Amino acid sequence: MNVQRRLLPNIGALTAFEAVARLGSFTAAARELDLTQGAVSRQIALLEDQFGRRLFERDSRNVSLSVAGEIYAEAVRAALGQLRDAALGLMSNRHSGILNLAILPTFGTRWLMPLIPDFVENNPDITINFVTRIGRFDFARERLDAAIHYGLPDWPDADSTLLVSETVAPVVSPEFLADRAVATPADFRHLPLLHMATRPGAWTEWFKHQGLSAPTGPGMQFEQFGTAAQACMAGLGVALLPQVLISGELQRGQLVPAPGRPMQSRSAYYLVVPHDKRGHPPVANFRDWLLGHVPPEK
Fold it and tell me: Of 3.90.660.10, 1.20.120.450, 3.40.50.300, 3.40.190.10, which CATH number belongs to 92-164+268-291?
């Protein structure tokens, strides 16, 4: 056997190995793969003979990965996942392929998703798979092609294309504002302020922007802007929210601006593409289409 063939094990053996590694049982793996236990054992033995390394530690009752097996199992899981993705791409999309895209929860649902039907209509040969991610991650490990990211254009080994700048402003429900004497930002000191867990210093920055010191009292905290907007509409307090994410509520009058000047955030929304994906046709098509739907900066 030449070196190239020795480094490329049989796919059936890899599938059996991954199943045993994941399930921790030859019997369970055989049941899942619709094979006999002996067939699974023979596939594992083939791998161990091929590499000259023991992949599992066995005793009369249990089976567990060896140190070498643990390292190999992680690589095999990733490789089989890539093969499954490639097969899905071939079956579902013969031409342009698949775009695996990470999106932010609220920005993805409120800003991006209403636009996606147009992309689907104009790019019928591209299938988009969406996952939700907040913050940075490893594109290669996550097997993702691009991401909608909030932050600065400083993602390592990637291109960051500006989509939308962010302006935040205090908003309240009309009823909340009608029931209280709120004429200036200084009046917020006596009102419940709603906080975002992902923007812990937002209110402090905004008060500084108004020439005021921020109040130090506690307030409700939320993980997603959509939930904060709902709480604000329910009259629970004043929320400092990105205008791009609450345009619908503002247009419908469910939320109204509170006194005070809006403030542009230092961060913005970007399309981030790792360098090794710049030439991937679905990524290039999506980027060109998306830039055609970005509103002009005012």
Answer: 3.40.190.10
Q: What are the boundaries of each domain within the chain?
A: 3-88, 92-164+268-291, 166-263
Looking at the DSSP assignment, which residues form a beta bridge with residue 71?
Answer: none
34 DSSP assignment: T
Reply yes or no on whether the pLDDT at 87 is more than 80. no
Non-local (6+) Cβ contacts of 226 within 8 A are 105, 106, 109, 110, 245
Q: Which residues of 32-41 are buried (b: 16+ CB within 10 A; e: fewer)?
A: bbebeeeebb
Residues 250-296 pLDDT 10s = 999 999 999 999 999 989 999 999 998 988 899 999 999 999 988 77
d(C-alpha 283, C-alpha 295), whole Å: 20
3-88 folds as: Arc Repressor Mutant, subunit A (1.10.10)
pLDDT tens figures, 200-233 = 889 999 999 999 998 877 789 998 888 999 999 9
3-88 matches 92-164+268-291 in fold: no
Band (135; pLDDT cuts 50, 70, 90) = confident
Report the pLDDT value the prediction gives residue 89, as an integer from 0 to 100. Answer: 59
